[in-house]
Amino acid sequence: MKELKYINKYFKKYAVQLLLGIFITIVARVFSLVTPSYVKKSIEVLERYGGDLISKSEAKEILLQHILIIIGTALLAALFTFLMRQTIIKVSRFIEYDLKNEVFDHYQLLSLNFYKKNRTGDLMNRISEDVSEVRNYAGPALMYGINTITLFATIVPLMFMTAPKLAVYTLLPLPILSVLIYKISKVIHKRSTIVQQYLSKLSTFTQESFSGISVIKAYSLENKINNELTDLAIEGKNKSMDLAKVNAWFFPLMVLLIGISTIFVIYIGGQQYINGEITSIGVILEFVIYVNMLTWPVAVIGWLTSIVQRAEASQKRINEFLSITPSIKNDVLEDTPLNGKIEFRNVTFTYEDTEITALKNISFTIEKGDTVAIIGKTGSGKSTILDLVARLYDVSSGEILLDDVPIKKLNLNSIRTEIGAVPQDAFLFSDTIKSNIKFGKENATDEEIIAVAKKAVVHKNIMGFNKKYDTILGERGITLSGGQKQRVSIARALLKDPKIYLFDDCLSAVDTETEEKILNNLKNASKDKTTLIVSHRVSSAKNADKIIILKEGEILQIGTHNSLIEIDGYYKDLYHAQLIDKEN
Ligand SMILES: Nc1ncnc2c1ncn2[C@@H]1O[C@H](COP(=O)(O)OP(=O)(O)OP(=O)(O)O)[C@@H](O)[C@H]1O
After folding, report:
1. For residue 374, how far is its CA from the centre of ligand 1 (angstroms)?
2. Among 1.20.1440.230, 1.25.40.10, 1.20.1560.10, 3.30.70.260, what is the CATH number of 3-322?
3. Distance 383 CA to ligand 1 centre (A)
4. In what residue span(s) does the ABC transmembrane type-1 domain sit (predicted)?
5. Which of 229, 336, 574, 580 could form a disulfide with 411 if both were Cys (CB 3.0 to 4.6 A apart)?
C-alpha cells in the first residue's frame, strides 16, 4: 500500500463525496438487513397460525404487512445502492481523470531523450491500463470493501445473537471460499495479462500491416503476413482458452460453497429445532438468506486483495515515471522576449542513447535578422544544431547564447514561442488543413491562413481539394504528398510570425521551381528574422548571409556563396555538381 499512498491527495480532494458515499453504503446495507428478519417473522406468523394462536385473517393481515415492509425496505436498499455507486464510482472516475491528466502533463514536460528510451506502447499503457487499475482500487475496491465491512459488522453480531452455534457452522465455509476466490483471481489476472499482451501484439501487427500495406503489396508479402498473423492469432486463442478454463471455475465454485453453507444451515438448524435449541423454523430461513448475503462479500475479499495488489503495482510504475525529472528544465519563470541573435561557443553534443557525438566543438555567431544556411552530408549534425537552438536538448559542453544570454537563463517557453520550426519530417495531425496551419497561431483569421499558404505556395493545391481548407488529413482523410506536407508545415511556421525560423531540409520534396518561389517569399517574410536553413541544395543556400559547411560534426567551411565558390572544397564541388545536374 506504500505506493498507493500517492493517491491519498485525491481522496482528500473528494473527501466530501467519499464520506457521503460511505454513509450511503452503510444506510443501503442496513435497509437490506430488514428482509431476513421479516422473513423469519413471517414464518413465525405461519407457525402461530398453525398452532391456533392467531386467526386466519389475522395471519393474512400480518403477512401482508411484513411483505410490504420487505418490499419497501428492499426498494430503499436498491435506491441507496444506486446512490452508493453514483457517489463512490463517480469519485473514482474523477480520480482517474485527474491522474490521467497528471500523467499526461508530465509526459509533455519530459524531453525528447525520454521518448527515445521508452517505447510508445509502454507510455500508452501507463496512461491507460495502469491508471484504470488504480481506479479499480479507488472505486470498486473501496465500495465493495466498505460494503463487506458493513455487512459483516451488522450480520455477524445479529447471527450470534439469534443462534450462536448455528452462526459458527454457517460462517465456517466462508473463509475457505475467500481463499479459493483469491487464488483463482490471481490465476485469472496472470492469464488475462498474457491474453492482453497477445491482443496488443496482434493489434500492433495488424496496424503495421495496414500502415505498410503498399510495401506488402509491392513485394507480394500477403501470404507471409497472413501466415504470421495466423500464428499470432492461434497463440492468442490458446491463451484465451487457458483464461476461459479458470474463469469457468469462478461461479461454480461460488455456487458450490453457497450450497454447502446452505446445507449446513438446514442440517444443523434442523437438528437444533428438533432439540428445541432454536424456537422457530424462521431462524433457519433467516440464516439461509444471511448465507446468500454474505457469500458475495466474502468472495469479494479475495477479489479485493488481488485488485489492491494490481493497483499497487500499477501505481508503482506511475510513481516511477512521475519521479523522472525533465532533463530540460525551465529555471526562469518570467518571460524573456527574444530578438534573434544566436551564438554557439565551443559546443559539443553527444546523444545519450546512441553516444554519437553529433557536434564537436562548434562556434559561430548569427546576427539578428541574418539568414544562415547549413550544408553538409547526411549525419553531419545539421538537424542537431537546429534542435539545440530550440533547446530540445542541452549541450554536452560549451554554451549557446541567444541575444548574448546563455540559453539556460532564458524562459523555455519564450524561446519556443519565438521559434518557428519546420522539421525534416513534417508532422501533420489527423485534423483539417486549416487546424494544422492554425497550430502556429490559434486565433488566426481565414485571411491570415490563406496569406501564409500562398507564401508557402500551397494555396492552389489546397483549393484543388473538395473541402479546401476544411479537408481532413491523415488516416481519416486525404494523404498529402511529401512536398505538400512540407509546404503546409512551412505555412504553419510563417503564421506564427516568430523571431527565429528553423527550416530543416523542408524543401527537399519540392521541385526547384517551387523551391525558388518559396525561397523568394520566405526572403520577404523573414526580412528581419533570424533564419537557419538546413539543406542539401546550393539553390536553398546561395542567397544566405552566411553558409556553414559541416562534416562529421565539425565546421569544414564558413562563408558566403560568392566566397565559398572561389575556394576549393565541399561547397564548390557541390555547386558545380548541382550546376551540371541542372544544365543536364
Ligand atoms: N535523436 C537522436 N538520437 C540519437 N542519435 C541521433 C539522433 N539524431 C541524430 N542522431 C545521430 O547524430 C548524428 C547527426 O545527426 P543529424 O540528424 O544532426 O544529421 P543531419 O546532418 O541533419 O543529417 P540529415 O542530412 O540526414 O538530416 C547522426 O550520426 C545521427 O545518427
Report:
1. 14
2. 1.20.1560.10
3. 7
4. 19-310
5. 336
Ligand 1 centre distance from Cα of residue 520 (Å) = 29
Instruction: For domain 329-418+501-517+529-584, give the fold.
Output: Rossmann fold (3.40.50)
C-alpha span between 305 and 319 (Å, rounded): 21
Residues 6+ apart with CB under 8 A from 43: 280, 281, 282, 285
CA 130 to chain centroid, in Å, comes to: 9
Pocket-testing residue among 374, 375, 384, 556, ligand 1, by greatest number of atoms within 8 A of Cβ: 384
Chain-centroid distance, C-alpha 162: 53
Strand partners, 421: 502
Report pTM.
0.72
- Looking from the CA of residue 359, the nearest atom of ligand 1 is 14
- Which residues does residue 503 pair with via DSSP β-bridges, in sequence order? 422, 533
**pLDDT tens-digit map of 279-322:** 888 999 999 998 888 877 877 777 788 788 888 888 988 898 88
- CA-nearest residue for atom 25, ligand 1, is 378
Question: Matching CATH topology for 3-322 and 424-497?
Answer: no
| The three grid cell numbers given for residue 194, joined into one nine-digit string | 498474457
pLDDT above 90 coverage of the chain, percent: 27
Mutating to test ligand 1, I would choose from 116, 356, 570 the residue with most ligand atoms within 8 A of its C-beta, which is 356
- Pairing type for strands 405-406 and 397-402 reads antiparallel
Q: Is the CB of 424 under 6 A from ligand 1?
A: yes
Spatial separation of the C-alpha atoms in residues 369 and 193, rounded to whole Å: 57
Report the distance separating Cα 503 and Cα 295, nearest Å.
68
Look up residue 27 and give its amino acid: V
CB 575 within 8 Å of CB 538 = yes
Q: What are the sequence ranges of the domains in the chain? A: 3-322, 329-418+501-517+529-584, 424-497
Domain 424-497 has CATH 3.40.50.740: no
Check pLDDT > 80 for residue 332.
yes
Q: Is 381 in the pocket of ligand 1 (CB under 6 A)?
A: yes
Residue 422 Cβ < 6 Å to ligand 1: no
Strand order in the sheet with 397-402: 357-366, 342-350, 397-402, 405-406
